[in-house]
Design brief:
Strand content: 15-25%
Mean pLDDT: 89
Number of strands: 9
Helix content: 25-40%
Low-confidence stretches: none
Structural class: alpha/beta
Number of helices: 5
């Protein structure tokens, strides 16, 4: 759906011919934020990529592989997903955790840009990384939403709530609309 089509749904939802006296650019910004929030909160848009790791390599810089992703959901080898384990727990359970080799069974994060596997790969292999994709910012009424149509009503609810929070309407009504989504 386009921004214009969704804005028509929001107008119907608010039931106000003057559209709460809010400028179109602000409404589009609310709509863009609503789409992003729904996508991240409900893990609607996911993006997969494969990353080759070589023997004895335990850490990968993931933003360079998934540039439009906000966070990692799963990391897997050819089969099931690896278990997420905080690196602090790995360090406490194995003092040599950065050099212990084997078939990876765990993944961890280092800061905000790196993921690692434990034990360190004892052979070259490919990791499948799945992340939460952040939709592009909407700027015009002709833009198309990236969220699937099945989620549009949730976006309408959050957009309506944001408009009501910022307009002369009741704060509580806006919060109820957002909570509904």
């Amino acid at each position: 759906m386009t921004v214009s089509e969704v804005l028509d749904l929001v107008k119907l939802d608010i039931d106000d011919p003057d559209f709460v006296h809010t400028s179109q650019s602000i409404v589009i910004r609310h709509l863009s934020r609503a789409q992003i929030w729904i996508c991240l909160a409900w893990e609607v848009l996911k993006k997969d990529t494969s990353v080759a790791i070589v023997q004895r390599q335990g850490v990968v810089h993931w933003p360079s592989k998934l540039p439009s992703v906000a966070g990692i959901v799963t990391v897997a080898l050819a089969g099931p997903a690896l278990k997420y384990t905080p690196w602090e727990d790995l360090r406490l359970s194995d003092p040599q955790w950065l050099s212990t080799q084997g078939t990876p069974a765990h993944w961890y994060t280092m800061g905000i840009s790196f993921i690692g596997v434990y034990p360190v790969a004892n052979a070259s292999m490919t990791l499948k990384i799945t992340g939460l994709q952040v939709p592009a910012t909407l700027t015009a009424t002709t833009d198309t939403l990236e969220i699937p149509d099945a989620w549009i009503q949730h976006v309408v609810d959050v957009t309506t709530g944001l408009i009501l929070l910022g307009g002369e309407r009741a704060y509580q009504a806006g919060m109820q609309r957002i909570a509904k989504a």
